Amino acid sequence: MRVSLKDVAAHAGVSIKTVSNVVNDYPHVTPAMRERVQRSIDALGYRPNLAARHLRKGRTGIIALALPEFGNPYFAELAAAVIDAAAEHDYIVLLDHTGGRREQEILVSQAFRARVIDGLILSPIELEAEDLCDRAEDAPLVLLGEREYDLPYDHIAIDNVAAARAAVRHMVALGRREVAFIGARRGRSEPAELRVRGWREELTAAGLTADDRLAAVTDGWGFADGAAAMTGILRAGRCPDAVFAYNDPMAIGAMRVLHEWGLRVPEDVAVAGFDDVVEGRFGTVTLTSVSPDKGAIGRLAVESVLARLSGRTPEHRRIRASHRLVERESTLGRRTASDGRRA
Predict the structure, then answer these.
(1) What is the CB neighbour count within 10 angstroms for residue 180?
(2) Mean pLDDT, range 318-326, rounded to an integer
């Protein structure tokens, strides 16, 4: 049988209004009264009706999160961070998969689920600024990732150029002189362009050559794409002493190929990735990787949606989440690497 506010009030010997004030965390309730009511809540197993609470505010209690890839470990971890952050505010998250396709990103951004969501968090890949200019839906939209839009929406991202430079700087400091990049794209891809830019800038700053023949172009960013890119470089007769990959799956794919070719990581070729996904921490050789603060990105995204709903932030913001380079065996070797040194 469902326990009601009336049941809790009777058990605690207080008014229903007092119980409601405690449940809704109103600040004027005394600590003694809050403790008294909480004991009754715990004893009876009362659970608030979150749907009713949101409906009283004219909301659904649902935030949509639209991501380009569910198979990519980074996006899986990011989704978990958003779900955890939303739960802290009694919201649930509706997941949408865009496949990184422009038409699907347009459909999602135009709030085709407007009747069931209070706000949208979108990580676009192909969406263009003009696709958002005539957005009629007033549900808050928060953008994630590296695509820059000069539009009135909150946007959360890390500094990809600085992050890429940190990874390359680390390998150069270890004495590596011919650093390849795998994961460039033929068409427009702002994340890839920014990471290639960081790779190029850091090599130039170190007085080294950013050889375009070592910037491998790929159609995708998965394990197989990394393996194919590494194979292509080696078959072309090039043997770099370091590889910086667009993301961790590509780095892991590249390490597999290096192993098959009889090259040791990191003795012959140092390897670094991007995103610090869990798979990279448990391979035979643990992976050095740029680690975006995924928890902070999820928290900031949810807080931005809720701030828009409440009208607390009139100005739209460009928010930089933090990142760090986690140094592991793929660049340091087993004898040097600890359990994830951080730079």
Answers:
(1) 24
(2) 95
